[in-house]
Structure formats: structure tokens, C-alpha cells
Amino acid sequence: MGATLLYENKILGEKVSDDVATTRGSLTIKVAAMSNDADNGCLGVSGAVQFEHNGEQRGNTFFDLHHQENYGDDEYDEEDDSDWEPINHLVIKKWFCSNCTMPNFDDVYHCDVCGEHKESEIFSHELLKYSFGDGNWNSINTESVQMFQGTSCKSSTAMGFDERMLLHCEAVMKSHPHPERPDRLKAIAASLAAAGIFPGKCTLIPAREIQLEELQKVHSSDHIEAVQQSSCLLSSYFTPDTYANQHSALAARIAAGLCADLAIFIMSGKTSNGFALVRPPGHHAGIRQAMGFCLHNNAAVAALAAQTAGANKVLIVDWDVHHGNGTQEIFDGNKSVLYVSLHRHENGRFYPGTGAANEVGVMDGKGYSVNIPWSRGGVGDNDYIFAFQHIVLPVASEFAPDITIISAGFDAARGDPLGGCDVTPAGYALMTHMLSSLSQGKLLVILEGGYNLRSISSSATAVVKVLLGEIPRYDMSDVKPSKAGLETVLQVLKIQLKFWPILGTKFEALRAEWKLIASNRRKFGKRRRFLLGPIWWRWGTKRFVYELLYGHRKMRRHSKRFLL
Question: What is its main location (predicted)?
Fold first, then answer.
């Protein structure tokens, strides 16, 4: 796959073009190249380097569908501005929230998205005071290696974490901070430390890099090479929203390796359950592409590692607010892995646009992809728990998995800048508790998204407490979904009935309930129409006056009968 290499002589300011035919994968790079390194497969070019990939047309990115198309590019303008003149005395000042990274006008003192104060001291707060470089981690790592190398030792809850994953960051600072940042891991780890959970009650497993043969079970060779190639460059982009630096490939290999080992330790009985505190996230990474902040698919790697360790059937529940298109693609035709995703969809308008209810798998995997696509934002605890009660748990129990993996994105949490939903830490804790009843408690939780530091730290802490045995407090007697939530559950039940007959009784009961609600709504609508006056007056006269005033004289045929 060819590409054009442009490099700039910084002294003379001259640009020279050359052709390069060895660029692999869908990697777009704007970089300052590093030194030649033949052993690592780095390109032997010095100076400022830019690759422009001429391969497949990319789809929508995170920022396209979150209305941030020109993310970090203040100079982007397709219109002719030759006659533009600056407006004197107009200076638009803004500040970026330290908690969720969202922009706010300078005269606003609390973030419009998460409510964080303009002068927040979150980074000096107890939340982020914990030091990762004080030497404690080395001693913890030594103890964990000794523990997990033994055959008789067993831990209740294992934790996967390594400081080197913090090195993965956006090297080129832009006008808008990137939401997928190292502070996400710091916030969660510090919250766990403040709660006395980790280090303390959880056991840290030794970190290792995932091996090539393990990655090749999930991703294509071109994709693996493209990710590895980014280690030769100071800054690179797979898509406009998916960055990499020289440490990103290593961080991705460590994240995948930790997830694989946690799955193996759980299956071998060395630990009851585990939490993978890892980044970069993975559920958007497909067979051939990195996207949506994701490089390697950690959940897919863990699922196949669990099967290598003895699991016949694996359940993956993805509650990230975005559909895990990469995970679904990898297991679309595999009936030994059941993939269940609850995500905001909005008829394909929400990133990544996949995950409709009728996407059920292909060939032998038909019925083993269960998508629960919310039709709008704002869905909260009751909608998720209602879906768990009527779809997730019945299907999962019938499937009878040997291990359950949660792709735990916390971007459906209240106050998240990208999710726009309303799940609370108590809701995440209850969903974790409900899933712990499956596969004899063999449960692996893998961090995916979530970009509000306060919400992801409190939500992750609530989940880990459940893994440690705490029973969540939640009033199950008052679980009533929203109208949109009920409609989505009914839609999914109707589609999945042919694959999971156990859903039949729940579908009939809910359909009867929905008919009753619809009937009451129609009666109320008739009473309201009568009280507000005759329909011909409200629509006929107002339409006529509007068109008379504004010159819209052409009217639809069906509206003529309403004219006076």
C-alpha cells in the first residue's frame, strides 16, 4: 500500500516529495521522526515527516459523531475568507474543564457538562495525590510475581495495572485536550488507593507484553505491524481521533497481556475474579483497523486466552455507551462467544453507528450477538437494569458461560462529556453483582471508555467493591424504565425470540403492558385535544395567517380543507 512521504528541510525551508511503498496499515502520521532503528522496523528518515495514507476511505470518527469534526484544528475553514475582516474588541475566551476536558465560555464558572468549578483543584485533591513513582509498585510487583508463580496461592480479586500504560498520550498538544488521557488511570488507581482497596485488598498481577501469536488470533498482520510502526514516531494518528506516540504500541501490548493473564488466572483458579485497569481501550479495534481511541482489542484477546485455558463458552457484556464494533466483528460468526452490548445508538447517528438490534451475527454465530441500542441519550440505571432483567440475564443463563468478561466503559455515567447518559456508581455496582451470578463467579472486568475523572473513579471503585464481595444497595422494587428504554427492550426481544425462546414469556408480558400504556396515552390525548379547542382552529387559521404574512402561498393539498 503506497504513501507519499513529505519531509521538510528546516534550515532552507524546502519541501521534497518522494514515494514510499512500504507503509503498512491505515496509519496517518504527522511526526518528527526518531533515529534510525533497523531492529524495530523504523523508517530511516530524519527531519519532520508526514505520511498521508491513500487507502480505504475512513468512516465517521468519535469527533465526527460527537459534533467535534474539527477537533483541535483552529485553522480549518472550507469557505472563502478573502474578504473577511476581524471584529474589533471581540475576544472569545474559553477554559477547558480539568475533570472532563470540555470547553466552557470564560464567564461560566461551572462546567456545563459535569459541573466542575472553573478553578477546580482536582489534581491537587486526594483523588490524584497518590504517587506512582515512589517505589511502592516495585515491591508490590515482586510480591505478585512470587504469588502467581506459585501453584497453591489464591487471590480473591486480582488487579491488572502497569505504570508504563501512562506513557501513552497525545504528543502534540492541541487546542482541545484529548478525553482519552493518562489521568483516567491515575484517577481510578488513586480512588482505589484512597478507599484502601488497591494496593491492599486486591493482588497486583505481574505485567507482560502480549505475544505476537496471541495477537494474530485477533488482528491481521497488517494491523499489528501498523501499531508497532508507531513506536518509531513521536506522534502519529490512525484516525483523526486515535493517536499514538512512541510508547503507545508498548502500552497496548501490556494492556492486552494483562487482560490475557487475568483471564488465564481466573480460569486456572488462582484468582476468583479480576479488574483490568488498562489503557488504551480496545473494543473499537477490529480485525484490520484501530479506531475510536482503541489499538488492540483487549476483551477479544482475553476471551481467546480464556478458551486456551479451558473455557468452552465465553460471555462478553459491553456496557460502554458506544457499541463495541470491533469485538462484534471479531466474534460475529463464532457461537462459542456470546457478545451482548448495551449502547446509545440513535438509529446509527451515534458513534460508531453500528450495533442495531437486527445485527445478530452471521453464519454459525447467528443469535450470538445481542445488541440493545438505546434510541436516545439520558437513559439511566433503571433502563439498564430493566434490560438486564429481561434480556441479558435470561440469555446469558441459557448460554451458560464458563467465564464472563465485562467491557466496562464508564462513559454512560452521569456527567460524561461524550456519553450523555445517566448511569450512577450504584447502577454499575448492581449490574456487576447480577453478572457475578453467572459462570460460578468467574468474572473479568476490563476498562474501556469513560472521560469524566470523578465519575469513572467512583464507578470503577463501586465495581471493584462488588468483586471483593460487597453487596450493592439498590431498591429493585422501583425499577421502571423510560418510554425509550421499554421500546428498545421490546424491539430486541422481538428480534431475539427466534434464537432464544426463553425470552417468549417476558416478551408477551411486556407487550401487554405496553398496549395498556399506549391505550391510556391515546385517551389522555383525546381529552387534551378537546380542552385546547377544535383542531381546525389551531392548525387551519394559524397556518393560513403564517403563509399570508410570509408569502408561502403554496400549500399542501391535504391542508386546504382546514382553511377558513
Answer: nucleus
